[in-house]
Write a structure and sequence with these properties.
By secondary structure, this protein is α/β, with parallel strands linked by helices. The chain is 47% helix and 17% strand. It contains 5 helices and 4 strands, in the order βαβαββααα. The longest helix is centred in the last third of the chain and has 18 residues. The radius of gyration is 15 Å and the shape is globular.
Length: 154
């Protein structure tokens, strides 16, 4: 899987990017994602993610992670996927500020929180959601299973 990183904060070290990349490649294998799939991950601050959250979700406050899936199909849309062409899954935007705040609030490491948020966003790109209790249980169980298998515990 190809992951394009953009760090608008200049706060995410190579070690953290490497962790996220390895985790998402692992998660992609667990979820049978095509090995030539592509995603982008942007690290931003609270101000930037608040603008995105307001403009795209109508919620004028910072959030931790937002995903924009490219494979969501609208009615009457044709899906065009050619043999050997890259599958662009979408974009994940993570607030580094929120990740730091939540790591402290939940009493775990920034590394663990960043991994959780990246995986959470990735699963959204694959169609997982938490709009109702049943879907939330399924998504969070899958997150815990993948994080545990990768070696990241609470």
């Amino acid at each position: 899987m190809l992951i394009d990183f953009q760090d608008e904060t200049n706060a995410v070290t190579d070690d953290y990017r490497e962790l996220v990349e390895k985790l998402l490649i692992f998660a992609g294998e667990q979820e049978d994602v095509a090995p030539h799939a592509e995603i982008s991950i942007s690290f931003v601050d609270n101000k930037q993610i608040q603008v995105i959250n307001r403009d795209y979700r109508g919620k004028d406050k910072p959030t931790d992670v937002i995903s924009f899936a490219m494979l969501e199909m609208e009615e009457e849309e044709l899906q065009i996927v050619g043999e050997g062409l890259p599958v662009v899954l979408g974009d994940i935007i993570i607030s580094v500020d929120k990740a730091k705040e939540q790591a402290e609030a939940y009493n775990h490491s920034f590394e663990r929180e960043l991994a959780f948020l990246a995986l959470h966003g990735f699963l959204h790109l694959l169609g997982y959601d938490h709009m109702n209790a049943e879907d939330e249980k399924k998504m969070f169980r899958r997150q815990d299973d993948i994080l545990g298998a990768f070696g990241i515990e609470r």
